[in-house]
């Protein structure tokens, strides 16, 4: 059994900007028999129910010397798995998994100056991601639970300076510099 639904809509904003909203829902149920238990020889049955939800919003500027994009999204995935022996209805293993993620970023492209070899441009980006995963496993009346989380924040700058114009030499020659800082909640700072 499976069903899904989704939508997407765009809206024009002032100064040529555009906002796009999208989302989806999905529900799946699968049932399978595979292998057999080493002790009883009974087939092992597994039922998996999965629900996915997604929502996203993107706002983008119009064309010009300065352009920007602001996307954000949310995702929620839930999965319940029941594994049982056909010959022993009381022997089951139930697993519940819940995973959520939030993401947002900003991207700016700015034309700083027009040089003889071409435009000098600066690109700046900021990115934030929050991820959570909760798991619960029930087996033989024993419950094991775990929770994992990671928050990631990233910022970057890129400066591009053209050195030689394409004419009379084919191709483009320029200087490019990149800086990126990343902060992981479970690790620390990373710099490149």
Helix proportion of residues, in percent? under 10%
Which regions are unreliable across 5 or more consecutive residues at pLDDT < 50?
none
Mean pLDDT comes to 82
Overall morphology? elongated
In percent terms, what proportion of residues is strand? over 45%
Spell the H/E element sequence. EEEEEEEEE
The gyration radius over C-alpha positions equals 26 Å
In total, the number of strands is 9
Find the structural class using helix and strand composition.
Answer: mainly beta
The main sheet orders its strands as 1-2-3-4-5-6-7-8-9
- How far apart, in Å, are the first and last alpha carbons? 47 Å
Q: Sheet with the most strands?
A: 9 strands, antiparallel
Q: If helices are DSSP runs of H or I spanning 4 or more residues, what is the number of helices?
A: 0
Provide structural commentary.
- By secondary structure, the chain is mainly beta.
- The chain contains no helices and nine strands.
- It has strands at residues 2-12, 18-36, 43-60, 66-85, 88-115, 118-139, 142-164, 173-184, 188-191.
- The protein has a nine-stranded antiparallel beta sheet, with no helix packed on it.
- The mean pLDDT is 82.
């Amino acid at each position: 059994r499976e069903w899904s639904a989704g939508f997407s809509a765009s809206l024009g904003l002032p100064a040529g900007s555009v906002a796009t909203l999208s989302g989806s829902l999905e529900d799946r149920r699968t049932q399978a028999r595979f292998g057999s238990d080493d002790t009883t020889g009974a087939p092992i049955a597994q039922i998996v129910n999965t629900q996915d939800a997604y929502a996203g919003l993107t706002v983008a500027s119009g064309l010009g010397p300065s352009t920007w994009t602001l996307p954000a999204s949310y995702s929620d995935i839930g999965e319940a798995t029941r594994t049982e022996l056909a010959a022993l209805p009381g022997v089951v293993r139930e697993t519940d998994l819940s995973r959520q993620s939030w993401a947002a970023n900003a991207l700016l492209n700015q034309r700083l100056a027009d040089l003889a070899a071409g435009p000098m441009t600066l690109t700046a980006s900021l990115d934030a991601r929050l991820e959570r995963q909760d798991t619960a496993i029930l087996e033989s009346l024993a419950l094991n639970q775990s929770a994992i989380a990671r928050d990631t924040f990233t910022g970057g700058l890129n400066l591009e300076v053209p050195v030689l114009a394409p004419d009379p030499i084919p191709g483009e020659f320029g200087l490019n510099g990149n800086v990126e800082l990343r902060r992981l909640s479970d690790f620390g700072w990373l710099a490149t």
